[in-house]
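User: I've been going back and forth on whether these two constructs are worth ordering. Before I decide, could you fold them both?

Assistant: Sure. I'll take them in the order you sent them. The first construct and its structure tokens:
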Amino acid sequence: MTRMLRPAPPAPSESAGRLRPATGSRTGTRSRALARLRLLAWPLYLTALLWYLGTYGLPYTNDLVFLWLMGALVAAGVHSGHGARGFLLVLRDWVPVMAVVWTYSLLRGYGAHTPWGPYLWPQQRADEVIGFGETLTVRLQHGLYTPGSPQWWDYAAVTVYMSHFFAVFVILAVLWRRRHDRFRHLLTCYLVLTFAGFATYILYPAVPPWLSSQEGHLPELTRVVSDVLTESGLPRAASVFENGSQFANDVAAMPSLHSAYPAMLLFFFWPTAARWLRVLLAAYPLAMTFALVYGAEHYLVDVFVGWAYAAAAVYGVRWLRGRRRARSLAASRTAVARVEPVEPVEPVEPVEPGAGVAAGVTGGTLER
């Protein structure tokens, strides 16, 4: 996967916070026993993960995804011989991330209790214009969806939709392990994008198509993801506070963060990605768009706004990092110039009157 993500050429700080292979030789029975025990790190982790998957299904909620990713990173640290150091590095970088996302999940529900809105007609009218008089959600569902009889494209749409809950975190974990500088960069983009979306949910609470249908403003629509998961006997997958909780926000539709995160990955990795990988990076946002519009989760205009937010976040953070790097480089050059030693200038001896004439006499001849 790390080869697939091909980051930019190594930066000086790329290894900051990274786990490095343990060096040095250890002798003694105790050291050899510890070396054998650390080989159990991955088998124990995978055994626990398989047991969880068989008992509870895939971990889609943010807290569980974070915990399993942190467990994988700890297992990697123990396996490479770092022990407590690897564990502390994982806690240092991932617990704050988990706390921030958890805080967002708590705050997100307050967007449903603003004194204004929620708004419906602007985005619905925009989709009707794009769909030549009818929203694309209505057209797609009436043409492709059969309630109670999911087709292969329904399962594909559900798979793409559910990737929202762990795709970014898995990529962050890979970068944390391999390119820590890129990990911090992508994490900054993710947090900026997430809280920009939250601020918009407060300022502009927006009704999604499925809720508009329930209120009688659109023909009958089905939440395809929920319906397919129910028909398949799988638990409904959602974020940690979205299963009927008081923190759920049914009007957090503008912008669509489901579409914004794939677009963020596209803009972030595009400059350094191989040609074949660019095809995948471009296909992911398009596939997510189909899943969201077809599944009645978002209007198409919600998706477009999500893409715009992703572009602003990625290129804005990149511009700020470039400015900071340029200022740091200029400051370091200034500091070097101030302390750079100055070559001493040899004093010039004063010339006596007539010395020039005398110096011109060679071999008894006066130069003219």
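The second construct, handled the same way:
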Amino acid sequence: MNSQPLYDFAPIARLMFLGVVIALGPLAWVWVRNRHAPPAQRLRVLTLVTLFLTFDLVLFGAFTRLTDSGLGCPDWPGCYGSVSPVGASTSIAAAQEAMPHGPVTFSKAWIEMIHRYLATAVGVLIIVLSIVSWVERKRLSVSYVWPLGTLVWVCLQGAFGALTVTMKLFPAIVTLHLLGGLVLLALLRAQATGYALAAPGHPGRVGLPGRLRWALLGVGALLWLQIALGGWVSTNYAVLACSEFPTCQGSWWPTMNLREGFTLWRELGMNHRGDAITFPALTAIHYVHRLMAYLVLAAMLWLGWRLWRVPGMRATARALLLLAAWQFASGLTNVVLDWPLLAAVAHTGGAAAMVIVFTGALCGTRRAPERAPVSSASPMHLSNPIR
């Protein structure tokens, strides 16, 4: 096997070129369909297209992780110094011959590199969004800070992607990489909502009662916590620690090692002492996520019921209720059917969709002003009855 440097930046220009080529398709489509539209409309459509492709990227990232393809090319940004597995075929064949059941195979290398190509294309689209928003900043009613912030974030996300490979799937790094992709979805959704609100004739943000607005924020925070716990389950491969429902290992409270399971800074498959992680630790990771799921599911059902009665929020309520059912079904399928690939990817997709819906709801609503109580001493009651 050829010795490769830890960080190989030689193919970065060619990788960026491929990203530009892939991004040209969506950019051309947006331009042709909206060439006569105002800048805000073009930016909104381009943001929605980028949001859609980023959602696809999150799903493909889950597919990459679940097929154990994260180290299909064990260097970054290329594959054994090449821009594609074709140029690295000799190194891949040597690695596969040395470890027939190891992390490097031709199929895994292609999965990993396609993930990088898609990520680069999304990065190019975000660069275009930031440039156009800066150029058109004087004619837009929406701040260009959001696209620039998204550009900074996608650069950080790329750095975490590199660390995911070079640190050999370190669970904390992989979980942060997953959360970073979902934050990217939230940033793009916030921008799309802002452009929609700025469109002429839009009725504006929906007013929510103060307590319901706070409930929306609270359930959103619970959702992010649950997603982080789910990412920790996935990156530690703890899904199969409990293979039955609703109990786990025949018990409502199985043997767990919370301290070992939630020691964050450690290598994959190891505990904080450098020994192999114990099964009670994996059980703790799985079961805490399951217990939290009950709370989040109940909170989402209650929130969907409350939002259903608010004018203008019925579509959001319907989406939340459907996604709650989707997450319950896909999560249950992962447990009882031994983690099938389709259900696992669907579970990640449901979490990503929830982030998009919650972000749109938060950005598209406001706290409604409280109605002032009618006082018995109001002027109409104090008017002189004798005229």
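Notes on the second construct follow. The first strand starts at residue 206 and ends at 208. The chain is about 65% helix and 0% strand.
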